[in-house]
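Z., the sequence and structure:
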Amino acid sequence: MNDTISRSSSGPITVLVCALGGEGGGVLSEWLYDAAVRAGHSAQSTSVPGVAQRTGATTYYLEIHPQPAAATGGRRPVFSLNPVPGAIDLMVSSELLETVRQVGAGMTSAQRTLVVSSTARALTVAEKMQMGDGRADDAALVATLQKHCRAAELLDLSTMARNAGTAISAVLFGAIAASGVLPFARSVFEDTIRASGKGVEPSLRGFALAFDAVAARRAQRAVIEAAMSSGPAPAVPSDLRTLARARLLDYQDAAYVRLYDDRLARIEAAERAADPQTQQGGAVAAEMTRWLALWMAFDDIVRVATLKLRASRAARVRGEVAARDDEIVKVFDHFKPGVPEFAALLPAGLARRLTAWDEARRARGSEPWALPLRVGTHTVSGALALRFVGALKGQRRRGSRFAVEQALIERWLAAVEQGTREHWALGHELALCGRLIKGYGSTNDRGKHHLLHIIDHLALAAHLPDPAARAEAVRAARTAALADDAGKAFDQALVANGAPARPLAAQPIRWHRRAAGMPALNTPAPGVNRAHP
């Protein structure tokens, strides 16, 4: 035993990598092993195949000696092949629920484990089967995670990977490098990527995005901890607001970001008035940070065209078809924009005339007008066409839909602001109603109608003078709307709380001329006898 180092006297750094199928978990574990060897440290890597409810999950376990091999006097460390629950120094995961699943298996320790995880989700089968929003509550998952680890670095690593046009493994590698758990310089990690020889530049971009984000957060925490020995944590995570602002800057312009900040400032002021001691942790502002940004960046043909041309999308498509670097991939996108999509970018007067023309056609029995398109995104002409549409961001402000969406946002914002000042719980429930605004087309319209009905008949209801009762009524209606796309449960929740059900929507009745030789509806088929009781 003279040539070994016992784990009890100098234990290894233990790393558990959790990845879903196709996300490059094996590549990440190889990079970690290669980085350790490159830095002169002894290391061992093993994989543990497993199964998850999404695309399959595999865990990779590494042990790295904290001292260089040159400092061990020729002795060799003894490594373990399998992770020991509660004895993990660093757990890395590409998906939030998978992270919590490993926490449930007892892998993390509240005294020892640092968790680096993406906040992105890959929905389980059970979540997808729900009629409404069946997703597990991200806030509850994060709360569970934070209770069972020493610290956590949680970022939207999937978005970073898409922006860099690389796989999430490269982004995770950057987050690990910046976490400070492994005693290697940044250059060691970057040289490991270069030595791999595959997708080096995109991988380095993704690495840098995550490294800089984690490093900035660690520096910010150090400053805060040095300046404040006590006091409540910031109500809204800085990275969440940063991502929201970046999304809106990409969507429109800097002025639109300032509008977003001004709107959030109104909610924050209302919440400070209702909860000056921040006993509720600023939950209203936190919810509005997310849902307001998503609504302000509503989908339209400009947004779709922009996303179709992203380099990250091209990289994802090539990855999905497993194309080699020397292979050409042709991508054809099919679009079918109709009158609502074109009218959205026209001034209100022209939009009304175009919409009225289409409604008249539909009243005469015609199908809604639409323009089927097949665009070769890989071609010069196709890319130029999409780039032209994507360049219409300036026209978006002058379009009819932009004005309509901003007016609806202001109605919701005013309701949340007023509700928060009156009763914190009411404002919080109204902020959560931002979940109703999702999808596009009829799904998006239905969500907005539900929201307006809740605001008009429950949040501001005269028959419910108690704001706590109104908060509960809003919660019940929102939950019902998310659970039942048909709207029956929503109507029942409205009526149960003294509000009117939704008005019946007009549906066109179309009459079709019976073809020659076709029997009338009440005419029995030949050879069929009708019996009467």
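Residues 264-294+401-496 form one domain. Residues 200-227 form the longest helix (28 residues).

Let me know what you think.
H.
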